[in-house]
Design brief:
Helices cover 50% and strands 0% of the residues. By secondary structure, it is mainly α.
Length: 72
C-alpha cells in the first residue's frame, strides 16, 4: 500500500495537517481502510497542502521576527 508518511509526524495547529505528509489526523487514522482510488485522490492534494503549511509557518516566523524585543 502506498503511503505519503515520511515519519515526521507533527500536526500543525494552524492548518490541521501533518507537517511531514500533509494529511489530516482523520486521513492518517483511516488510511488503511481507504480504497487505492481514495488514497491517490488524497495524495494528489498533499503537495498543495504542504506548500500552504510552509507559507503559514513562514508568515508566523516573519511576524515574530518583526516584533521588538521585550526585556525579560
Amino acid at each position: 500500500m502506498q503511503t505519503p508518511c515520511i515519519h515526521l509526524c507533527s500536526l500543525v495547529s494552524a492548518t490541521g495537517f501533518c507537517a511531514g505528509c500533509g494529511r489530516t489526523l482523520q486521513e492518517i487514522g483511516s488510511w488503511v481502510s481507504y480504497s487505492d482510488t481514495e488514497r491517490r485522490r488524497i495524495m494528489a492534494l498533499l503537495p498543495a497542502r504542504l506548500a500552504g503549511g510552509a507559507a503559514v509557518s513562514n508568515h508566523i516566523k516573519i511576524g515574530l521576527a518583526s516584533r521588538p524585543e521585550r526585556p525579560l
